[in-house]
Hints:
Elements: E1 11-16, E2 34-39, E3 44-47, E4 56-60, E5 64-66, E6 72-74, E7 78-83, E8 86-88, E9 93-95, E10 102-110, E11 113-124, E12 134-136, E13 142-144
Parallel strand pairs: 4-11
Antiparallel strand pairs: 1-2, 3-6, 5-9, 7-8, 7-10, 10-11, 12-13
Amino acid sequence: YPTFSQSLSQLFLVLFPPFPGPFPSFSLSPSLLFLVLIPAFPTVKPRLDIERCPPQQNWTEGQEGILTCNATGTPEPQVWCSKDGNSLKPGTRHPADRAHAGTYLCRASSELGTAERNVTVWVQCESGARGLGANWDILGSWGSLDSW
């Protein structure tokens, strides 16, 4: 549900008479006017939903990988993700590597709060030279049977 920010830079100033009679008259006398602050636009806390920030993402080793995680909210939240103390900016291209496999904590923040989501990245690796096929290794990425 929208909430209203108290930031003065986001408010409109509206003046109106306190008790207009049967014939409205708008006196500019300061003693007869009320001051009302109305938000310029509703503010909305950051939100990470499944469509914009999928909890499971698949990359292929050696190709470009893009961590997809976008947030909604007003004002627009900043989004960043990290795994084991290493940051990965969502939406940027990276050469996919087995080291990218794992669970990232993605955060969307604005002055209204923070939303968090775990995103698991699976990295599919090339199969071994003997063509034995691919299996899941214990790190959650694809690895050939040769690597066991």
